Amino acid sequence: MPTLASIYRYPVKSSAAEPLDVARVQQEGLVHDRRFMVARPDGAFVTARKYPVLQTITACFDGAQLSLLHDDYPAVAESVAQFERQHFATRVWADDFAAWTTTQRLDAWVSRIVGEPVHLLWLGEQSSRFRDTIGVRVSFADGYPLLLISEASLADLNARTDGSHVMAQFRPNVVVRDTDAFAEDGWKRIRIGDVTFRVDAPCSRCVMITVDPARGERRSDGEPMRTLLRYRKGADNQVYFGQNLVAENEGDINVGETVDILE
Description:
By secondary structure, the protein is mainly β. It has helices spanning 104-114, 151-160, 225-231; strands spanning 3-9, 18-20, 22-26, 29-30, 36-39, 45-46, 58-61, 65-70, 73-79, 87-92, 95-101, 119-122, 130-131, 136-137, 146-150, 174-177, 189-192, 195-205, 211-212, 217-218, 239-247, 251-254, 259-261.
């Protein structure tokens, strides 16, 4: 039986992965997942696609305080009570919505790492971003609340490439084991712990997967995108790796639980 091997969340969009043993799932995804985002003064979102160094930031958020760490800079922490909470118009791809400002101190800290003036925005207690196409509220994630990948799919990729790639390059929320490679492509609904998920659509991949998350630098060989283009390209010329999930109810998931394939 497939089992839940790992859980990851990313408190700040494009920040390093935070491994978890247990997580609460809500409509927007994992609690505290991608509840913060870096944005330019005009509201345009900033990610590791253009600034790979963002992946070297470790973020911790417990709902009351945000802490940011980086090997080259002193850590910074601010409580939600200190946030300015000014409405800030922003957008993720085609979605325009309102977020909240945090503090000038957090803005300055992230701006120093990115190398240009930016704001660190907060989603708030509840997202104001509702996606009609999937019928749920979404965090600062690209388009879906959660992403699933199997260990076997990554192993299959590594068997086809000269280098070794890690799961962190693909930024999943849930990783499953004890499956065939790309078995997840055939799933429609699954249950993990208390939560039933709709397996809504395959995840199209971009240059983000070529970033070495440990160094915060893009690989010069274009891998693994170059290899995936040979055998994971769809009819639309997009590369697909992993499946986007939408939770049908709230509940907890735990590493080690069985993944029940409902459809």
